[in-house]
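We emphasize that the prediction below concerns an isolated chain of 432 residues; any contacts that depend on oligomerization or on bound cofactors are therefore not represented. The input was used exactly as deposited, without trimming of termini.
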Amino acid sequence: MTVTQRELAGLKPKKNAYYVWDNTRTRGTGRLGLKVYPGGRKTFVYRYYRDGKPVFISIGDFPKVSLSDARERIERFSDMLMQGMDPKSELERQERQKQKEIEEQQAKGSIEELFKSYVAQMKKDGKRTHQSVYRALEKEVYPFIPPETKACDVTTKDLIWALSHMVNRGALTQCNRVRSYLHAAFNHGLNHDYDPANYQKHSKFALLSNPVSLVRIQKSAERVGQRFLSYPELREFMHDIEHEVEGVRASPVMRALLLLCIHTGGQRPYELAASKWEAINWEEKTLLVVADVSKNKRDHLLPLTDTAMDLFRQIKSYSEGNPYIFPHTRDLSKHIRLDSLSQVIARYREDHPHFEHFIPRDLRRTCKTLMGEIGISKELRDRIQNHAMNDVSSKHYDRYDYLSEKRRALEAWEVRLLGVDQDDSNVVPLRG
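Result of the prediction step, given as a C-alpha cell string:
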C-alpha cells in the first residue's frame, strides 16, 4: 500500500534497520522505500532488480526530502527501466560525463595563456616585436578583462570595452595596434587546437570564431606617413649630432647609430643595432645583415662608404671585446635598446623647437626620398633599404646581390650628404 508523509514521520527506530515501501502497484518500474536506521536516521531509497539481485539508489534523507519530492525524483529512474536502461549505470555514466566536462572546462586556456602562446609562436617565428606586443596586451587588456578569463568566454563586447579606453584617451593608433595584436592572437588560438603538436601537452582554447573580427578599426588614425626632412634639415640634424653641439643629449654610440642609419641609405636601426662585428668585412667594406636579424628573413649585403667605415672604426673602442657593434650599456650579452633612439630624437626636438616634428622612422623615409631626388631608381633604393621584393623573379630566382650598383648609389648619396657638388656620372640606375 502507499504510505503518507505522516506515517513516515511516525516510524520509530528498531534494533535493526528496516524498510517501509511505497507500493504504487506498478510492476517493472522499481519501488520507493524508506530505510529506518537504529539511530533514528531515515533515508529514501529506490530499489530495482538487475539479474535477479536488488540494486539500491539513495534519494536523500527524510524529512529534508519530502515524500512527494522523493516520488518525483524516482520518476526518471522508472522511465529508464521502462526503456531498458540500468538507472544506476546510467547515473554513473552521467556523473563521469559531468566530471569530464568540468575537467575540459578547467583545461580551457585563459586569455593570459592565449597571449603567452601567441607571443611564444612570434618568438619562434623570429618576430622581434614579441616582447613589445605582450607588454601592450598586458597594459591595455588586463585592466578590463582579467587574465584568468577563459579565452573562449571573451566576447566582442568585452574587447570593445577594453579598446574604447584607448580611444577615449586619444590613443587611436595604439588602439588599432592592440586590435591587430588581439586579432592575430585569437586567430592563433583558432588554429592552435587543430595542431597535432599542441594536442597532448597544451591547453585547449575551444574557440569557435574570432571575437575581434567585428571590432572596427579607427580609420582616422591610419594616415600614411608623409614627414621627411628637407636636405637643409637633414644637414643641420647631422651636423648637430656629429659635432655634439649644445642641446644634443645623446651618447657617442647612439650618435654613431643615427649617423650610420643615414649614411647607409636609411637602414632599419634594429638591423644595424643587432648586427655583430663579425658581420663587417673590413677589406671588402661590407656589412652582412644576416637572415636572423633581417626583417624579411633574408641575408642583406650592404656596401659601406668611407664615412660609414670611419664611423664603425670610431665606435669599435666603445664595444671592445663585445660581439655586438652596439652593445647594451649594462648587459653585454645584448645589443642596445632601440627605445633609446626615440628618446634621443624626442630630446632633440625639445631642444630645437624650430624643427618640425619628426620621429626615427621619418629618417628612413627621408633617405628614401632624397636619394630619389638625386636620380637613384626606386628599385635600387628598395634593395638598399632591404625591402622584401615580392615579385616571383626576385623571391625565387634572382640571387644576384646588386652589390656594385648599391655601392655606386651609396657613394653618390654620400657625396650629397657631404655637400659636395656631383654630376650625373655618380648615379647608376639598376640595370634592366
